[in-house]
């Protein structure tokens, strides 16, 4: 890690002012998910919404450096003109910011083929809680200096520093895109076999997502459990993969906007619970979760099967007792709450960073605890 003192960095000035005034800051991008995470004990918002623009773009290196407030849509527009893209599709909308996506460690179905946010970030610039400006990583793919620091910042929810700039790894944009919907059986054993058959077929999907019946209907497909497969590549490769999926039986072309609709399903502030297990157990977790959410009207489910993640989207009116029934149905799994009503956090997930190591890291980066205090849980 290297630290520098930048003379006219408005975020640095804001942090230094907050330190002097002893005023905690709520770090935000465009504030679309300002209600996500635990309640923050701060009345002042450090917004990155105006910290936008491309700093450096070298198409030949497949890298781009942007300011943290730059939206995902803007990155898509700039890189798309060069036949490239950032294969990162966090849940929400394309007008979310790069900085917020990295800070929250957000990702979507494309993580199946391209990894999560931490796998696509090469370098970061950020302002620490003591006002220093730090940089980790680099602007080329081969540069691994500060690699651990970049990963540490990714998913830290702004508690270690305010991200102001990011260098990202790009990929070539597929010449053709196609999505295929595969019907799936109900029983866990048959479902597991169906997932394995799709994974072992002669295809290299960009995304492989299991969709519950009610959610499938919202995506423009039949109201039944569906394995949604996203293909991409040249014309010949996509056609060959489509034929390979057809040989599995029950294959049909999916609506072209299904993935965009899936990303936007979270809009409106529902409660969101992510259940993680070994990929080999995903069919069993899926089945038990389906049973548990059946009494919850309006509940929806989808799963990134290769990561072992089952994601529940629950109406905001869902009771604590109903959520606890979902947890009880999946012993041995890891639960991550993405969004909850304010009053439920202290009951269902009071803290995720109360251990000595987490506190020590926090103290090293933000000794005065002015950045997003409480978003990871109590500081003591």
User: How confident overall, as mean pLDDT?
Assistant: 91
Using the 3D structure, state the CATH architecture of the largest domain.
2-Layer Sandwich
Low-confidence stretches: 1-7, 142-147
Question: What is the CA-based Rg, rounded?
Answer: 21 Å
Question: What this model shows, in words?
Answer:
The protein is α+β, with helices and mostly antiparallel strands. The protein has helices spanning 10-21, 72-80, 98-103, 111-114, 117-120, 147-153, 188-200, 213-218, 235-246, 258-263, 282-293, 320-328, 345-348, 356-365; strands at 2-4, 25-28, 44-47, 54-58, 63-67, 84-85, 121-128, 133-137, 161-169, 171-172, 176-183, 207-211, 226-233, 251-253, 271-276, 300-304, 309-314, 334-339. α7 packs across α11 (282-293). The longest helix has 13 residues, at 188-200. Residues 1-7 and 142-147 have low confidence and may be disordered.
Strand-helix topology:
Elements: E1 2-4, H1 10-21, E2 25-28, E3 44-47, E4 54-58, E5 63-67, H2 72-80, E6 84-85, H3 98-103, H4 111-114, H5 117-120, E7 121-128, E8 133-137, H6 147-153, E9 161-169, E10 171-172, E11 176-183, H7 188-200, E12 207-211, H8 213-218, E13 226-233, H9 235-246, E14 251-253, H10 258-263, E15 271-276, H11 282-293, E16 300-304, E17 309-314, H12 320-328, E18 334-339, H13 345-348, H14 356-365
Parallel strand pairs: 2-3
Antiparallel strand pairs: 1-8, 4-5, 5-9, 6-10, 7-8, 7-9, 11-13, 11-14, 12-13, 12-16, 15-17, 15-18, 16-17
Helix pairs in contact: 7-11, 11-12
């Amino acid at each position: 890690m290297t630290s520098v003192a930048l003379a006219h960095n408005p975020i640095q000035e804001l942090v230094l002012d907050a330190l002097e005034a002893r005023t905690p800051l709520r770090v935000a991008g465009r504030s679309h998910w300002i209600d996500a995470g635990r309640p923050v004990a701060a009345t002042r918002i450090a917004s990155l919404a105006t910290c936008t623009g491309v700093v450096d773009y070298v198409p030949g290196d497949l890298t781009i450096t942007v300011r943290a407030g730059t939206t995902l849509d803007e990155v898509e527009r700039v890189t798309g003109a060069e036949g490239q893209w950032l294969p990162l599709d966090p849940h929400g909308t394309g007008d979310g910011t790069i900085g917020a996506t990295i800070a929250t460690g957000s990702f979507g179905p494309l993580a199946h083929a391209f990894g999560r946010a931490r796998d696509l970030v090469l370098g970061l610039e950020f302002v620490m809680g003591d006002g220093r400006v730090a940089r980790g990583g680099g602007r080329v793919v081969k540069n691994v200096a500060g690699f651990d620091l970049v990963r540490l910042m990714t998913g830290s929810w702004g508690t270690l520093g305010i991200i102001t700039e990011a260098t990202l790894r790009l990929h070539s944009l597929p010449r053709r895109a196609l999505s295929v919907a595969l019907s799936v059986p109900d029983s866990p054993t048959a479902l597991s076999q169906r997932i394995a058959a799709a994974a072992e077929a002669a295809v290299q999907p960009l995304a492989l997502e299991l969709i519950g019946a009610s959610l499938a209907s919202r995506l423009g497909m039949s109201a039944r459990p569906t394995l949604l497969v996203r293909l991409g590549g040249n014309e010949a490769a996509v056609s060959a993969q489509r034929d390979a999926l057809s040989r599995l039986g029950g294959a049909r072309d999916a609506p072209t906007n299904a993935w965009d609709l899936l990303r936007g399903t979270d809009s409106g502030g529902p409660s969101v619970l992510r259940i993680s297990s070994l990929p080999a157990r995903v069919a069993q977790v899926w089945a038990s979760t389906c049973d548990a959410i059946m009494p919850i009207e309006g509940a929806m489910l989808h799963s990134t099967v290769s990561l072992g993640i089952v994601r529940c989207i629950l109406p905001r009116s869902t009771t604590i007792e109903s959520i606890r029934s979902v947890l009880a149905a999946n012993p041995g799994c890891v639960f991550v709450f993405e969004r909850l009503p304010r009053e439920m956090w202290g009951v269902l997930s009071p803290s995720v960073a109360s251990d000595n190591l987490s506190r020590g890291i926090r103290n090293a980066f933000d000794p005065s605890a002015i950045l997003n205090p409480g978003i990871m849980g109590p500081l003591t």
